[in-house]
Design goal:
319 residues, 3 domains, nine-stranded mixed beta sheet, four-stranded antiparallel beta sheet, 17 strands, RNA-binding, RNA binding, PsdUridine_synth_RsuA/RluB/E/F, rRNA pseudouridine synthase activity, EC 5.4.99.-
Length: 319
C-alpha cells in the first residue's frame, strides 16, 4: 500500500515515461534505464520508483540515480572555460578591458545571462565555470559546501620539505587563518618549481598570499579543477559545454537544497582531494616552459644582434 502511494505521488499522467527521461539525460539506452528503475536505483522527488509505467514532468521533477541528481532542464547552459591571463572575471567592464564575454561564442550565448563560478584575478589563468543556473552557481560558491579548487603555481624553487605540512596546518593571513586541503610538488626546473595546492575557500588572492607567507611568491598561477570538473586539455581562450554527466556530478558536490545541510566531516578530517588533472598540469607547466623558452629565444636574438652590430663596427674600423 505504501509503495503504491509513493508511485501515485510522483506519477504525472501527462508527463514523459521515466525511462525515456533517463535516456535523454545520458544514463544509457532505454533498456538500460529500465534496468535502473527495476533495481530501485532511481528516485523521483525523493521517492524510490520501481514501476516502468511511471511518467514525470522533466521541467519540475527532481530525478536521481544512485543519489546523483540529473539535469533535465534543456534551457540551462553549463560551460567550462580556460581563462587566459589578462582577462577580467566579469561579463562587462566600464573601462573597456577584456572580459569573459570577449571569449564566449555569441552564437551560443546570445541573450543568455551567465554567472561565472570561481572568480580568478586578472593575472591568474585556468578553469572558470559559467552557467545560467543560479541555484547551482550559489551551491558551488557557498563556503559551507566546501567545494575543492585545485591550482598549479609556478614558484621560485627548489621547494623545501615541510612546506606542505605548514600549508595544511594553516598559515595566518591578515584576514585570518587559511589552510590547504592538500599540497604536493608537481615538477621542478633550475631555479623554479611547480606545485599543486587544493583548498575549498575563495578568499581574494588566497593562494598567492598563502604561498608568499611561506616564502614562495607566485610567478604564475592557474586553476586546474573546480570540484569534479577538470581543466584537462582545454586550451587558453577556449570554452566547452559540460556533459550531462558532469553537470549531474557537480550537483552532487553539495547538499540537496540548503547550504550547511549535508553531513559534516568528522572533526580534523580534510576534504578528499580529487585525482590529479595530469593534462591540465601538463598544459600549465608546458605553457610556462614555452613562455620561458620564448623569452630566452628573444633574449638570445637580441644578444646575437648586438654582437653582430659590434663585429660590423670593428670591421669598419669603428666608423
Amino acid at each position: 500500500m505504501s509503495q503504491q502511494r509513493e508511485e501515485h505521488d510522483v506519477h504525472d499522467p501527462d508527463g514523459v515515461r521515466l525511462q525515456k527521461v533517463l535516456a535523454g539525460a545520458g544514463m544509457g539506452s532505454r533498456r538500460a534505464c529500465e534496468e535502473l528503475i527495476a533495481r530501485g536505483r532511481v528516485r523521483v522527488d525523493g521517492e524510490v520508483v520501481t514501476e516502468l509505467g511511471v511518467r514525470v514532468d522533466p521541467s519540475t521533477a527532481q530525478v536521481e540515480v544512485d543519489g546523483m541528481l540529473l539535469q533535465l532542464d534543456t534551457t540551462k547552459v553549463y560551460l567550462a572555460m580556460n581563462k587566459p591571463r589578462g582577462y577580467l572575471s566579469a561579463m562587462s567592464d566600464p573601462e573597456g578591458r577584456l572580459t569573459l564575454a570577449d571569449i564566449l561564442d555569441d552564437r551560443t550565448e546570445q541573450g543568455v545571462r551567465l554567472f561565472h563560478v570561481g572568480r580568478l584575478d586578472v593575472d591568474t589563468e585556468g578553469l572558470i565555470l559559467l552557467t545560467n543556473d543560479g541555484d547551482l552557481a550559489h551551491r558551488l560558491q557557498h563556503p559551507s559546501f566546501e567545494v575543492p579548487r585545485t591550482y598549479v603555481a609556478e614558484v621560485h624553487g627548489p621547494v623545501e620539505r615541510g612546506i606542505g605540512k605548514r600549508l595544511r596546518d594553516g598559515v595566518e593571513l591578515e584576514d585570518g587563518l587559511a589552510k590547504a586541503d592538500s599540497f604536493r610538488l608537481v615538477d621542478s626546473a633550475p631555479g623554479k618549481a611547480f606545485v599543486e595546492i587544493v583548498l575549498h575557500e575563495g578568499r581574494k588572492h588566497v593562494v598567492r598570499r598563502m604561498l608568499e607567507e611561506v616564502g614562495y611568491p607566485v610567478i604564475r598561477l592557474a586553476r586546474t579543477a573546480i570540484g569534479p570538473i577538470h581543466l584537462g586539455d582545454l586550451r587558453p581562450g577556449v570554452t566547452r559545454a559540460l556533459t550531462r554527466e558532469e553537470v549531474s556530478t557537480l550537483r552532487s558536490a553539495g547538499p540537496g537544497s540548503q547550504p550547511g545541510g549535508r553531513t559534516p566531516r568528522p572533526k580534523g578530517q580534510r576534504p578528499v582531494a580529487k585525482a590529479p588533472d595530469r593534462k591540465g598540469i601538463q598544459m600549465v607547466t608546458g605553457s610556462a616552459r614555452r613562455t620561458a623558452a620564448s623569452s630566452k629565444s628573444t633574449r638570445a636574438a637580441k644578444v646575437a644582434k648586438a654582437r653582430g652590430a659590434a663585429q660590423q663596427r670593428r670591421q669598419n674600423g669603428g666608423r
